[in-house]
Automatic annotation (TrEMBL), chain A:
Organism, scientific name: Nocardioides daeguensis
Domain of life: Bacteria
UniProt keyword Ribonucleoprotein present: no
Location of the FHA domain: 82-131
Lineage, uppermost ranks: Bacteria, Bacillati, Actinomycetota, Actinomycetes, Propionibacteriales
Keywords (A to Z) from UniProt: Membrane, Transmembrane, Transmembrane helix
Name recorded for this polypeptide: Antibiotic biosynthesis regulator FhaB
Region ranges (Disordered): 38-61
Pfam families on file: FHA (PF00498)
Membrane-spanning ranges: 6-28
Automatic annotation (TrEMBL), chain B:
Top-rank lineage group of the source organism: Bacteria
Pfam families for this protein: FTSW_RODA_SPOVE (PF01098)
Name this polypeptide is given: peptidoglycan glycosyltransferase
InterPro entries, per database record: Cell_cycle_FtsW-rel_CS (IPR018365), FtsW/RodA (IPR001182)
Membrane topology designation: Multi-pass membrane protein
Keyword tRNA-binding: no
Predominant location category: membrane
Enzyme Commission number(s) from the entry: 2.4.99.28
The entry's keywords: Cell shape, Membrane, Transmembrane, Transmembrane helix
Length: 154, 462
């Protein structure tokens, strides 16, 4: 084994040692600054809330009417709260006889979208469940008001 | 004291992938050192490299899988760092083996296997570190019993003048190492309950608020008894360790800097008394002040270690190229001298940094821990680790008088290695609890039956 080889082995080993030390430090560094902000949205168990139509893969940005007389109406979620109803002040104005003037609204709280029934006559449904309180909704959730179905989309 | 991490604005990630990556690097550090030793001594890669490396890999993978399964949020850096230190230690012990024709490295590998097994066992058996708070007084009693054991005739064995060993069949065991861990649990369990009384009730004497006797009494007695036993056994390193540990935990629990003043005074008083009373303390101090006065006699070990450091210089002689076997006990207390000689200051700094990282991660776990008991245990373990490294490295490099202690994870020594693995397991458990995201408590607050229950503070049963 030549002198040079042994020298190179020694240098290489010291390099490995320090690479290890520095990677450990860089992991600590990223651990300090790289943690993500908690999204309370990440829903834990919400027994009473109906299952969301599809798993959330990000935040919805708009509401679209997907079924009913007014299919195609779109409202931007950036103007939250979004009011759904027959009244003139509603962001999604529906010509559905089964919808109240101020029927339901979609609000944001702590990074999570909720749909809330505003005391409508015929009720707001998520799946087969009639809402009695604000319920978290996410991307793909289908909200039924009267004979109309509204969906949260990206 | 109970800061929760969610309030600080972020949650921790699991980082198990990062841990795996670092573990692979740690294996390269350990196995690479083994290969380099073979290359340096025999001029060829050792024949059993595959078997040795495979075994080491198996141990590390087992530890990693255990962490992944039972402590998924645990700190990602601790395990790789100690794995690297252990691997490097094994290689250096193997190097000394080759020079002295002994077989300590394979014994150490056996101990490491036992250590990793206990590491996994601790993580599995201890789903929550707060369970340990139940054993506050039990562990204190056990610590004292363990410390007394070597003085029992027939059981205790005297090795190299210090009566700190017990022999169980073919194995000899150092109970003081276990006592170290048990005392941390005792102090933490006691202080977390009594720290308000300790900090607030009492009277002021000169500069210091002294707590009431009934608050401080039990813990002070525990400490005096264990310290007294160690002094009787002439185990100065451990006495220093326990003294410092007690002081740090008292200071952290009560947040009174006065304890540090009292501690420093007690330390200097005790040190002076020990210097007057004990002949071996005097000789240690004399060696420290002037090792070259008797370079071939009492100062031989330290002088040879210093020559080793000097000969190694910045880059070292290269593994297998030096003569670390000159230094007596180079495989245990003086292993850092062997590293300094063959790998140089560069590697010594890396090793010290790794120890620093272990202490930092332990203190980090203490900072983010949500319960007082976890905070105190993590702080205590960090203090034990830091003090032990300081005392032994300071002694070897002639910064302070030499007292015999093992270098954690590097030195040859079964009891120390096994206990240190358990300590790391407990630290990982605390950090796992601390980094775990809080259960979702906010929504649907009306129905108390469906809310997640979170235990914040456990008051140990008495």
């Amino acid at each position: 084994m030549s002198e040079l080889t042994l020298f190179l082995v020694r240098i290489a080993y010291l390099a490995i040692l320090w690479i290890f030390v520095l990677s450990a430090i860089s992991v600590i560094r990223s651990d300090m600054f790289g943690a993500r902000v908690p999204s309370p949205a990440a829903p834990g168990k919400q027994p009473r809330a109906p299952k969301q139509a599809s798993p959330r893969r990000g935040q919805p940005t708009r509401v679209e009417v997907v079924q009913g007389v007014n299919t195609g109406i779109v409202a931007d979620l950036s103007q939250a709260p979004v009011l759904i109803g027959r009244g003139n002040d509603a962001a999604i104005r529906l010509d559905d006889d089964y919808v109240s003037t101020r029927h339901a609204r979609i609000v944001e709280s702590g990074g999570q979208w909720y749909v809330e029934d505003l005391g409508s006559t015929n009720g707001t449904y998520l799946g087969s469940q009639r809402l009695t309180q604000p319920v978290p909704v996410g991307l793909g959730s289908q909200i039924r008001v009267g004979k109309t179905i509204v969906e949260l989309r990206k | 004291m109970a800061t929760n991490s969610a309030l600080m604005g972020f949650v921790h990630r699991r980082r198990r992938g990062a841990e795996l990556f670092l573990l692979v690097l740690a294996l390269v550090v350990g196995i690479g050192a083994y290969a380099a030793v073979g290359l340096g001594v025999d001029g060829e890669v050792p024949a059993n490299l595959i078997g040795y490396g495979g075994w080491l890999t198996l141990l590390v993978v087992a530890a990693h899988v255990a962490v992944r399964v039972v402590a998924p949020y645990a700190d990602p850096v601790l395990l790789p760092v100690v794995a690297a230190l252990n691997g490097l230690g094994l290689a250096v012990i193997h190097r000394v083996d080759l020079a002295k024709d002994t077989g300590l490295a394979s014994q150490q590998l056996t101990w490491m296997t036992l250590g990793v097994a206990l590491f996994v066992g601790t993580l599995v058996a201890l789903p929550d570190h707060r369970l340990l708070a139940r054993f506050t007084y039990t562990s204190g009693l056990a610590a004292i019993v363990l410390l007394v054991l070597p003085m029992v005739p027939g059981l205790g064995t005297s090795i190299n003048g210090a009566k700190i060993w017990i022999s169980l069949g073919p194995f000899s065991f150092q109970p003081g190492e276990v006592a170290k861990l048990l005392l941390v649990i005792t102090f933490a369990g006691y202080l977390v309950v009594h720290r308000d009384a300790l900090a607030l009730a009492g009277r002021r004497v000169v500069f210091v608020d002294l707590p009431r006797g009934r608050d401080l009494g039990p813990i002070l007695m525990m400490w005096v008894v264990s310290l007294g036993i160690l002094v009787l056994q002439r185990d100065l390193g451990s006495s220093l360790l326990f003294f410092g540990l007690f002081l740090v935990m008292l200071y952290v629990a009560t947040e009174r800097p006065g304890w540090l003043v009292v501690g420093a005074l007690l330390f200097f008083g005790g040190a002076t008394a020990a210097y007057r009373l004990f002949g071996h303390v005097q000789s240690r101090v004399d060696i420290w002040l002037d090792p070259f006065a008797d370079a071939d006699g009492k100062g031989y070990q330290l002088v040879q270690a210093l020559y080793g450091f000097a000969w190694g210089g910045l880059m070292g002689r290269g593994l297998g190229e030096g003569m670390p076997e000159r230094v007596p006990y180079v495989e245990s207390d003086f292993i850092l001298a062997a590293i300094g000689e063959e790998l140089g200051l560069t590697a010594v700094m890396a090793v010290l940094l790794l120890y620093g990282l272990v202490v930092e991660r332990a203190l980090r776990a203490a900072l983010i821990s949500r319960d007082g008991f976890g905070k105190l245990v993590a702080t205590g373990l960090a203090a034990v680790f830091a003090l032990q490294v300081f005392v032994v490295v300071g002694g070897v490099t002639r910064l302070i008088p030499l007292t015999g202690l093992t270098t954690p994870f590097l030195s040859y020594g079964g009891s120390s290695l096994v206990v240190n693995w358990v300590i790391i397991a407990i630290l990982l458990r605390i950090s796992d609890q601390a980094r775990r995201p809080l259960p979702d408590l906010t929504p649907d607050a009306e129905d108390p039956d469906e809310q997640a229950t979170q235990l914040v503070k456990v008051v140990p049963q008495r």
